[in-house]
Amino acid sequence: MLRIALATLRARGGAFAATFIALLLGAAVVSACGVLLESGLRSGLPPERYERAPLIAAGRQSVDLDVKSPDGTDDRSSQPLLERPRLDASLARDLAAVDGVASVVPDRRVSVRLLDGDRTVTGANGAVPQAHTWSSRVLGGFRLTEGRAPQGTRQVVLDTRLAARAGLRTGDSVRLMTSSTPLTFEVSGLVALDRHRTPRQSVLYASAAAMQRLAPRFGATADAFGVFTEPGTPPSKVAPALERVLTRHHAAVYTGDARGEAEFTDIAVGAANLVQLSTAIGGNVLLVAVFVLCATTSLAVRHRHRELALLRAIGTTPGQLYRMITAESAVAGLVAGVLGCPLGVGVVHWLSGQFAGRGLVPPDFRPVVGPLPFLAAVAATVLTAVIAAFVAARRAARVHPTQALREAAAEPARLGRGRLITGGVLLALAVSVLGLGLGHRTDFLTLVGLANSLVLLLVIAAAVLGPLIARAATALLAPLLDRTGTTGWLAALNSRARATRTAAAITPLVLAVSFAATVVFTQTTQLDRSADEIRSGTIADHVLTAPAGMSPDLAHRAAELPGVTAATGVVRSKAIGVGSLLGTQETVSLTAQGLQPSALSATVDLDAHEGDLTALAPDTVALSTTAASWLGLDVGDRARLHLGDGTPFTGEVIAVYGRGLGFADLTFDHDLLLAHTTAAVDQSVLVRTAPGAAGDTARELTALARTYPGTTLTGALAADAQVEEQRATAWVNYVVVGVIIAYTALTVVNTQAMNTASRRREFALLRLTGSSRSQVLAMMRRESVTVVAAGVGLGTLLAVPPLVLIALALTGAPWPTVPLQGWLTIVGSTALLTVAGAMLPTRLLLRVRPVDAIGTKE
């Protein structure tokens, strides 16, 4: 069978070309996702500032929570932390008391802005520089290359590359800014990594007194502790005792290359994003690949019915046909998988750049390229090809030889009982899912999950019942086709007579339009709703913003200006809780904002549905309707969450509000949330003025903003800045849509081309009986229009139910946001490919003389 399969591949290379390309594209994307997944799981960098300390004690950059699986068993689920956990400085005494520990060196750090006039000098990889205590320099590989150590409260040491970027030398003055107005320091010296290495993060060192000026809020804390062991004591002997000390502080001991995780805390968040993104994209690609390849392979096998019937007639068993067809697909899958993996490397580098540009991974992210993702991609490609071949060969191998010979000449008049039953069951399930979704209108997670399941059920049902749909569509369009003359009548007749062939062309169109419309319009609905909530919910007259955040003191100073009735800083972070979806618990990361309770109602309108937002306090929290649905909480319940740095929080739910998409899922007391953020800055300041004082107050606020470089005054919150994370998520979903359209476009072109190529004798007969070349082309144009109208119409209709559920989940109303331009782009691209897939082969076939084509073998 393998020898026959190889011979068939050589003889029918054109027929297998599209399937091979689909497998090649799938292998490239799956291998790329595998590399990204491995990079996320194995992400890590060797330490730089911590490389000389054998042990580093630092907070865990993730939190583990107990969840219950559907069968009731307990499990643990981990979520990365957005903020950097801090430890009490007094912990150094407990660590130093452990046997075998020689010394403990605390490390404090704070992000700083280095100002050159009005310009901010960025550090390595476009990130802000990090200031550290001078005493912590012994932990790593930085050495003093020029000048002297910083002394007093007004001296700092810069790394040489940062100094060169800012044009600074020893003895120069430098302005630094953290969460206060700019402070001026003297550059007392320069440091550099040994062995002429380039630091991943730009650093500067300051004395303890200078660090207190830069970061007065965190004087009693440390970011990490470097632990040096006594001579002759291996770190592995000391580590367990240190772990016992750190257990109650949500901290851990890092050794070896793991010390880089404690130093570069952005790696953990980027790794979690990579794992999530790669599994989402890879899973969708595999799902679409199986669906597309089943349709493509089934069509290829259908065009070979006469050949397969002849094999059956000369004694070939069904099992032998199975093995031949699966062997053909396995060989094609193996070759496509091997050739697709190098393309996957290119996809990885493109995706990496896109992810980094949108803040999903660190800017200097480098993928880990190992053999496992490529082996998995090849195996997945071969398995997908074999599954598609098995499904396609099932009917061809089971029929009786004489029946197969009849079916090679004419399609069956009725749909098989099995397909009717399967399609009916799928439609019944889809109706049940829709009904269940409409019955859970306040349950966000349930609605989103049901919407995703619903579109899949509807598309599969449309594929199973394809011939019936094709006949129904042709019956609806036949009167219109008949009015276009003889060519229209022929087009309608052909579509009715070859319903299976027409259905094979309609199905990928339905897949492309319904999937693309559901994903794209889910994002447009969410972004439109978010922007609307920001516009309607911001009642402050003025907004102060800065790209790197602002000092919390700015809000206090603004509140003291004449004519200002209320002012609040807005601090943003994340919080983690346990949500429930259809009986399954899972951890969820929720956006969080902190506002001053006294100024909340005067600056924002969160659209409170229940409770009283004025009761906000450090031991309470307000939830959006979405968060309340996720967490299963109501007003008066106790919310158990973990703040962005992993600190447990338990507080009473005092309100449930409606504008969570535009603002945040959770609203905390400003000072509480600020204390658990890494930068300890406000993202914006909302100011409300007294009636008639807007003009004078604006001038005062403008003057105040000048004392904080980079701060600007606007009249409203910028929607783009507020929904930046949502836009990044939308882009990822657009990538998924792009892959789906690429796959289905390939299938559409291949299906149309194969259907058209099999009709060369039909075209020759039409021309020999008097039809002109232009009439045949007109007939094919009308058939293509029939396919486009049926596919686009059905695809659009199938996208409506899931989009209704999504709209209910996001807005509470069943009306999604569907931009006409977006819908026309989806429809136009798929329609163009459909017509091109039919008309280009038709033109090529019509170049052959009818007398030559009529005798061509099938």
Automatic annotation (TrEMBL):
Residues 17-244, 510-700 form the MacB-like periplasmic core domain. It is a multi-pass membrane protein. Keywords: Cell membrane, Membrane, Transmembrane, Transmembrane helix. Signal peptide: none annotated. PROSITE patterns: PROKAR_LIPOPROTEIN. It comes from the Bacteria. The chain crosses the membrane at residues 281-301, 330-352, 372-393, 420-438, 444-470, 503-521, 731-751, 787-810, 822-840. Residues 285-401, 735-847 form the ABC3 transporter permease C-terminal domain. It is found in: Cell membrane. Pfam families: FtsX, MacB_PCD. The keyword GTP-binding does not apply. PANTHER family: INNER MEMBRANE PROTEIN, MEMBRANE COMPONENT OF PREDICTED ABC SUPERFAMILY METABOLITE UPTAKE TRANSPORTER. Belongs to the ABC-4 integral membrane protein family. This is FtsX-like permease family protein. It comes from Streptomyces dubilierae. The lineage of its organism: Bacteria, Bacillati, Actinomycetota, Actinomycetes, Kitasatosporales.
